[in-house]
Amino acid sequence: MAKAIDGGDSALVVVVGAGGCGMVAALAAAESGARVLLVEKTDIPGGNTALTTSLVVAGSRYQRDEGIEDDPEAFIADITRRNGGQASPGLVKLMAQQGAPVLEWLADRTGIEFTVAQGASGHSQRRAHGCGGGWAFVRELISTVTKHPNIEIRWSTPVRSLILDSSGAAIGIQTEKGVITAGKVILATGGFGANKDMVAHYIPKADGIPYRGHPGVEGDSVRMGLEAGGVVANMDSFLPYPTYFRPLQLPMPQPLIHNGAILVGENGGRFVDETRYPSGPGATMLDMPGKCAYEIFDARIRQEVASELAPVIARQAFVTGSSSDELAAKLGIDPKGLSQSIEEYNAAASGGTDQFGRTPQALLSAPFYGAQVWVSLYNTQGGLRVNENGQALKADGTTIPNLYAGGDASEGISGPGATGYLPGNGTLTAIVLGKVAGEHAARSLQD
Ligand SMILES: Cc1cc2nc3c(=O)[nH]c(=O)nc-3n(C[C@H](O)[C@H](O)[C@H](O)COP(=O)(O)OP(=O)(O)OC[C@H]3O[C@@H](n4cnc5c(N)ncnc54)[C@H](O)[C@@H]3O)c2cc1C
Q1: Residue 429 maps to which CATH number?
Q2: For residue 278, what are the domain limits?
Q3: Total of domains in the chain
Q4: In-domain check, residue 315
Q5: Is the minimum distance from the CB of 222 to ligand 1 under 6 angstroms?
């Protein structure tokens, strides 16, 4: 049974937030010998981590079992191609090198069984690892954390602020229910997608677009870290999911695009290589009228994506046309533009690359299907600057004593803006920074 901790003390590691980063940090600190208090705002674990599909790591035993050759250098090249080299090189290297060992450690400690999913946009190898969805991941993780004798969890306990001593070192937290003193504090409260004011301030282009993430993710770590003298980086970085059916609050499934769907604007014209998913189309749509577009596919694609499309079909989120003109009329877009887009796409499908650099795999042919789709905000990826131990940094590059941050609460590896997200990088950052921060915090308590 977990040991009760009253009031805390200087030998305690406090972890704020029971999402992926916080749970991994708690487990890593406890396994390194520390007593840990995990404090969560809501009454259930998971945060945005429970909403994920998969995460990416390079060079895992699961990849080797499938004969997939991959390594951190190839991963670094892919990350850098996507983010334009604008993220912290130290963090990029950390994620690429530590992703696979941390994933395997997690699997061994929790019993989570990962499999390698099909390829994801921007990755030169198959390296997305899933385990039946984010909730399955969270369920196994919390089960292990809950049973650990060194970890106590407090639910429904929002943390309001940090407590600092006169030198500026973190020595505890102020919760809604009182003060808890601690030797180390790890901030893992996720990003700030649910905080409309912060989104408007840091990402003006995303102001007002639908938010699809967890309601508890309100930027509390950023606020607390800044109050403690920390600095932030890449605050306008976020995951812009481009194909969200706003009226029914339903995402159109990603495999539509990978199986050949196209996106057009009101004029019926395409505007991007859709397979640079999700950030390529998402970032472009932020500048389009209504921040929306129209996703067009055909019967072959509908058939190939049938299982993922089932919720969309059940709720009739798209319309059908026996010709592109009929579909355009139903969607209220320009028919000439749409038929020209389909013609040009089909011309490239006979062995070429289209004007956006996409290589179509097959012809689009009638009957057609289409839905109006809106860009939505999944998670934010800017946050507190940290080093490779997860220690929170000041403007001069020195650390704030005893303070750590990880996951969406910290700067990620997507660089600035809306175009740098490489699929699967969000949860990767959560587990790797959670692991290194938890271990470093526990070991420095013993020094
Ligand atoms: C719909 C959706 C799909 C996604 N799909 C993927 C994907 O397939 N692959 C991928 O890599 N990434 C994906 N992401 C991004 C990914 O979810 C995040 O990058 C990752 O989960 C962040 O983990 P975290 O632990 O930092 O934060 P979270 O998992 O969000 O956890 C934060 C926790 O902190 C708690 N908290 C907040 N404030 C306080 C406070 N003051 N006191 C105490 N507790 C607090 C919250 O309640 C929450 O439980 C997706 C995001 C969304 C929204």
Answers
A1: 3.50.50.60
A2: 240-377
A3: 2
A4: yes
A5: no
Alpha-carbon distance 219 to 374, whole Å? 24
Supply the pLDDT for residue 350.
83
- Residue with the two structure tokens 């003109």: 325
User: Measuring from atom 15 of ligand 1, which residue has the nearest CA?
Assistant: 426
| C-beta 380 within 6 A of ligand 1 | no
**55-56 and 368-380 strand pairing:** unpaired
Nearest-angstrom CA–CA distance, 331 and 333: 6
Compute the C-alpha angle 171/175/181, nearest 5°.
Answer: 25
Choose one of 355, 377, 399: the last residue of a domain: 377
Give the Cα-Cα-Cα angle 39, 186, 92 (nearest 5 degrees).
Answer: 130
CA of 252 to the centre of ligand 1 (A): 21
Q: Which atom belonging to ligand 1 lies closest to the Cα atom of 412?
A: 19
Q: Which of 271, 370, 362 is nearest to 326 (CA)?
A: 370
Give the relative orientation of helices 335-349 and 324-331 as an angle to the nearest 10 degrees: 130
- Our answer on whether the CB atom of 214 is closer than 6 Å to any ligand 1 atom is yes
Mean pLDDT along residues 37-61: 97
Span 232-253, pLDDT tens digits? 999 999 999 999 999 999 999 9
Q: Specify the pLDDT at position 85.
A: 97
Measured from the CB, is residue 425 less than 6 Å from ligand 1?
A: yes
- Asked if the structure places residue 3 within a domain, the reply is no
129 lines ligand 1 (CB under 6 A): no
